[in-house]
Amino acid sequence: MTKIATISVLFAVLMSACVSKKKFNQVENQRTALQEEISNLKSDRDECNDNYTNLQDEVMSYKQKIAQLQGDSEDKIELTESGQVVSENTKSNVRRVFSKMPVDQRSEAKTLEDSINMAVGYNIKSNLLVQMKDEDRVADEAIEVSVAEPVVRITLTDKVLFKSGSYWVDKKAYNLLARIAEVINSEPNMDIRVEGHADDLKLAESSYIVDNWDLSIRRAASVVRTLEDKFEVSGDRLIASGRSHYKPIADNSTEEGRAKNRRTTILLLPKIDRYMQILEK
Fold it and tell me: Matching CDD domains, A to Z (predicted)?
């Protein structure tokens, strides 16, 4: 082999080695990048699992407060995690509670979850009625409770909270509000929104209250002040709002309907910012 041929062969071998090493380095870099991506994905997965666990803990905490609102009734219904099999004891309690409820109310339940929420709401309502003195206790329709876990909506007609024509909370409602405040104070991650509602009748021109906006807001604010001043609910957790006559639940053309529309709603609901903090972590 001539010297030129020998050099050509050596050059080819060296070039082949260089190309192979280049490919090797490329593959090695890709492998390293994939390992880092897998590591990051595992870290994200672990963080998501932690956040999911935290959310589950929050929801379970609210479920416990809902159970607390039911009191110590033998028909108390334990709320289970969504998707879990409901215990036979819970089903039995739901059936017993349903047997006490009006037929038209029972017919509104379309699913097992509806039935459980309605039964829980009935239990809470019964327990709240007990908080009122016998001589001040009002008819069943004056208090309504609905549950869409973990949110509890407590609706009180004005005769539960106020004397006729007044927006100051009547002392007869203190036991009722004290019970609600007890549950609120035991759950720091719960906000409370109080909504005032009115019928659509105009107020007398001589009234010191301007209109139904003014009345609904004053009554909501009065409930909020009572919860804060009398029962030590922190003011930064309370929201007062007035809806005037724009959210009726009954026909304003009848006295019965107007009486139902004159109401105050107390919503116990998870703190949205708390949920967002968990999700953003």
Answer: OmpA_C-like (cd07185)
pTM metric for this prediction: 0.72
Burial 23-62 (b: 16+ CB within 10 A, else e): eeeeeeeeeeeeeeeeeeeeeeeeeeeeeeebeeebbebb
How many C-beta atoms lie closer than 10 Å to residue 186's C-beta?
12
pLDDT given for residue 3 in this prediction? 59
CB 196 within 8 A of CB 212: no
Neighbours of 194 (CB within 10 A): 23
CA–CA gap between residue 121 and residue 71 (Å, rounded): 12
Tell me what the mean pLDDT of segment 72-86 comes to.
67
Give 267's strand partners: 153, 193
CA distance 157 to 108: 22
Residues 6+ apart with CB under 8 A from 164: none
Q: Kindly report, residue by residue over 61-72, the tens digit of the pLDDT.
A: 777 778 888 887
Amino acid at 237: R
Which range (30-39, 184-193, 229-238) has the least confidence? 30-39
pLDDT for 154: 94
Beta-bridge mates of residue 143: 156
- For 189-236, write each residue's pLDDT tens digit: 889 999 999 999 988 777 788 899 999 999 999 999 999 999 999 999
Q: What is the 3-state secondary structure (H, E, C) of 74-87?
A: CCCCCCCCCCCCCC
Strand ranges (E), 160-271: 190-197, 238-242, 263-270
